[in-house]
Amino acid sequence: MSRPAAAGANAMAAEAGSAKCPVCSGLAPALPPVDFNKSCEDREQPLLPPSGQSISYCLCARCGFCFAPAMHAWSREDFARQVYNEAYATVDPDYLGARPQGNAGALHALLGGHAARIRHLDFGGGDGLLARLLRGQGWQSESWDPFLEPDRDLTQLGRFALVTAYEVFEHVPDVDHLIRTLGRLTERQGIVLFSTLLCDGQVRAGEPPSWWYAAPRNGHISLFSSKSLELLGQRAGFRYHGIDHLTHVYWRQSPRWACEVFGLPKSRR
Q1: CA–CA separation, 241 vs 265, rounded Å?
Q2: Model pLDDT for residues 7-45, shown as the tens digit of each residue
Q3: CATH number for the domain including 172?
Q4: If the chain, 269 residues long, is cut into consecutive pieces of 10 residues, what is the mean pLDDT of each piece?
Q5: How far apart, in whole angstroms, are the C-alpha atoms of residue 166 and residue 153?
Q6: How far is the C-alpha of 14 from the C-alpha of 79, rounded, in Å?
Q7: CB atoms within 10 A of CB 39
Q8: Are residues 81 and 173 in the same domain?
Q9: Domain span including residue 42
Q10: 237 and 181 within one domain
Q11: Same domain flag for 139 and 246
Q12: Rounded to an integer, what distance in angstroms lies between the CA atom of residue 38 and that of residue 241?
C-alpha cells in the first residue's frame, strides 16, 4: 500500500476546507466529518461506539471522486494498527470466506469456458483463497495482495490476460499508484475486472457522507464516480466500461473472449 507524496499536504488543506482531487486535480471541498468508527455494518444502528476521532471526506466538484485526505496520508503501519487489525472481521465479516468463495463461483460461471487460456491474477486477494479455489477448477490463477506483500517484485509476476480486483479500489490511498500498477500487470490484450460501488448520487456536497459504503472503519477511503473511474483509467491507457453500479472493466485492446462475455467493442487492428 503506497503513501502518495502529496497526501500530507492534501490532509492539511482539507482541514482548511478543501483539497486537490487525486484523480483530476479539481477542487474538492470538505464534507462535514463522520466518526472513524462508522462502518459498513451500520445499516440500522451503529455497530461500534463513537471513537471520538473525526474523519472528513472531500468531494471533487469536477469528477465526483470522494476521498478521505487524512487517511490517504496514513502509513501502512497506521492502517495495520487502526483498520486491518484483529477486530476487522467485526466490520467486514465476509472478507475471509464468503466473499472470495462467492466471487470465485461467479467468475467460474462467467469465464470457466475460457479458463484454460486465461492467465489470471487476483489483485488484492488477501490470503489467496479465490485463486486457490479457481486453480482447483483448472484455472491458471495467482494472487497478490500489495498490502500483505508490499515489496514483491512485479517483474516476477509478469502480465496477465485477466486481473480481478474485488472490493479493492475503495481501500486504496494512492489511486495513481494503483492504476499504474494495474497497467503494468495487464497484457495489452487483457482486461481488469473489478468491483467497487459507484458514489454517483450517494454523496452530496455540503452533507456528511451518510452512505453506508463511506466507512472509515472498513478502510473505505476512496469512493469513485463513473467519471472518476474513466479518468483514472486513462492514466494507464485504459478504456472504461461500467457493467453495473458495482462491476467494471478496464481494457486497452479487448480479447475476443472479453468481447463476447462483456460486450466490449472489438479491438481496432
Answers
A1: 10
A2: 666 665 556 589 999 999 999 999 999 999 999 999 889
A3: 3.40.50.150
A4: 60 72 97 98 94 98 98 97 97 94 97 93 97 97 95 92 98 98 96 98 97 98 98 98 97 91 76
A5: 22
A6: 20
A7: 22
A8: no
A9: 7-91
A10: yes
A11: yes
A12: 31
Does residue 210 sit within a domain?
no
Number of domains observed in the structure of the chain: 2
Distance in angstroms (rounded) separating the CA atoms of residues 195 and 189 = 20
CA–CA gap between residue 72 and residue 147 (Å, rounded): 14
Give per-residue pLDDT as tens, 244-261.
999 999 999 989 899 989
C-alpha cell at 34: 463522520
Query: For the whole prediction, is pTM greater than 0.85?
Result: yes
User: Which residue is it, cell 517484485?
Assistant: 153
Tell me, yes or no, whether 140 and 76 share the same domain: no
